[in-house]
């Protein structure tokens, strides 16, 4: 028996227009002295996006960012598997409780 979660966070999250490589390139421009305002105009993003990216990817190389993304994806997949297993466990306990 499978249960459907009412809200699947991954499906509701908006995908970034920029790849990890592009984000790191933008952050490297900032490290080279380009102002946040200039980067926002040039790339069409908000200053909040730049600061969020800097908090997440600051100081990383592209390979490290790709590894981070892969780990985040794996973590999400494992959390989903755990949630499914927990729901199956509850359903089985329910069935066993009713039979005995």
TrEMBL record:
Top-level taxon: Bacteria
InterPro entries: Homeodomain-like_sf, Transposase_8, Transposase_8_domain
Biological-process GO terms, alphabetical: DNA transposition
MF terms in GO: DNA binding; transposase activity
PANTHER family cross-referenced by the UniProt entry: LOW CALCIUM RESPONSE LOCUS PROTEIN S, TRANSPOSASE
Protein name: Insertion element ISR1 uncharacterized 10 kDa protein A3
High-level lineage: Bacteria, Pseudomonadati, Pseudomonadota, Alphaproteobacteria, Hyphomicrobiales
